[in-house]
Amino acid sequence: MFRRHVLALAALACAFGTAVHAQTGAAASYPTKPIRLIVPFPPGGGTDILARLVGAKLSEAKQWTIVAENKPGAGGTIGIGEAVKGAPTGYELVMGQKDNLVIGPWLYKNLPWDPTRDLTAVAHVAYTPVIIATSANSKFKTLADVVSAAKAKPGSVTYGSPGNGTSIHLAGDLFEKAAGIKLSHIPYKGSNPALVDTLAGNVDLLVSSVPSAIGQIKAGKLRPLAVTSAARSSSLPDVPTVAESGFKDFDVSTWYGVLAPAGTPPEVVKTLNAEINKLLATPEMQAAIQAQGAEARAMGPEEFSALIQKEYGEWKGIVANSGVRIE
Fold this sequence. Notes:
The chain is of the alpha/beta class. It has two domains: about 30-125 and about 255-320, Bordetella uptake gene, domain 1 (D-Maltodextrin-Binding Protein, domain 2), CATH 3.40.190.150; about 130-225, D-Maltodextrin-Binding Protein, domain 2, CATH 3.40.190. It is built from eleven helices and ten strands. Strands 1, 2, 3, 4, 5, 6, 7, 8, 9 and 10 form a ten-stranded mixed sheet that branches.
């Protein structure tokens, strides 16, 4: 009897050791085929720009093949849902962000996934303030001009955003509340269409991530009025914050990061995190991200996961107070 128990334990230990060795070996040889990186927004927006930048730099540094694929719609929640359904092998990734991970679930009824349960945090990539801007030909020269016009005629000033319920839309909503004004929100399917209409003068203001707008700002076609973060953006140091413009303690920003389906092997997550963080530590990558109006910020998987869980809880109340709900 004793001998049978010893043999059984030995067999179990052997099987466990084989499984661990296989997992470690798979991580050591990872990747052996192309990696799909889902982008939950249309081409040209901040999420798309950063996803393709990370993919290109990883491909250069490691000779990996990373294929970015746009899956836009429903404030980015469609692309996240696509990633959740992917195989947890490390070959299905998504560039998530604050909008679709911690805000979308409180906006859309009956989403079939939970960001804290159905996804694995891989690597935080960058954060950025939201920017309030207008066409270079606009009559608005400062944020104070916008407030004055909106107070004189409530609802007369329009602003475009990447969509209902995005953090950018809610940044606009929070600004309205802070300034005691009423603006008319016009949602678009992504930042780029909103940008195009702002440049054409079809909407008065653009509320956008900095990466989506910085190209036209640098080209002199878009006039930045304020950023929504507590401190000025290092990419646009001459642009005042909303707080500096008279609205004390105003602070709204967004962030971006890479995630994988829940159950992705920890060793694969560790490999991905280490390689992405190596890139984020290089002056070249930091400059490339800053050129897009964002700030590189590396995190371990555990820290990034904790950020998602913390903000997921915080934004429940913000969304409820905004009154925004998408069926």
